[in-house]
Amino acid sequence: MSSPPTSVLKGQTALPTDKVQQIGLLNAVNDKYGGVVVDMKEPMDFHIYVPLLRASISQWRQQGKKGVWIKLPIQQANLVEPTVKEGFRYHHAESNYLMLVYWIPDSPDTLPANASHIVGIGAFVMNNKREVLVVKEKHGYFKGKDAWKFPTGVVNQGEDICAAAIREVKEETGIDTEFMEILAFNQTHQQFLGKSDLFFVCMLQPLSFDITKQDSEIKAAQWIPIDEYVNQTYNREHKPFEYVAKICLTKSQSNYGGFSAVHTLTSSGKQPYLYFNGQDFKP
Predict the structure, then answer these.
(1) pTM for the full predicted model
(2) Which pairs from 226-233 meet CB under 8 Å and 24+ separation?
(3) Which candidate in 159, 171, 181, 228 is catalytic?
């Protein structure tokens, strides 16, 4: 009986060059940090996959590569277990794939961790009657609490903060808005799925005023005087909410300077937003 192919985990002998050439290698591209990325797009039986993976790691070790990233689409879930058995670990998962990673050198692993934060927004929208747009939610933390709150939500992957604020207000209340400023933000830890949370308080100007609430998520939505919102019992009993309410009240009364958004251009051609204090700096 022939013996199974030799694993090439850390500390073990790499496969000979002629053996690697005989078996073949996985298709991979170099990343910017001395590693390789394998995007498994075609179905493959694990009896074929495992020798290819072992031969590839042997080759990458000889080439001085560092991190190995293997992206397995959900259709190839059969390859997760054999990949883990070869020394890989989970890095992150999305709805249609799982990413596994492996550190080749006998040195400290410097592969970056999975995303550490979730980004959320709260939308401060005030009309010319000094009324603010508020909602009561059917679900979540505020379910059953007799408290009005700003429209809130999570920023989607690839979505700008200013765009997320406009979208959330539209979804929850039907109100069209224009982004004005970021007034404040806070950071909390051990939130959803153990992630940290960055929450941005955004000021938006209403472009429409007739409310059409989102029936699936919102119990009630209306315009109320800003003083009524600020002086709610819930805000007085919860300091973070009290601070946000007072910041928004101050903005409505005086020349409190938030952070405006301006399009910039990176060297790679991307167009992110830069947020800056418009009172102190003009681009």
Answers:
(1) 0.74
(2) 226/126, 226/130, 226/131, 226/132, 226/252, 229/132, 229/134, 229/148, 232/147, 232/148, 233/147
(3) 171
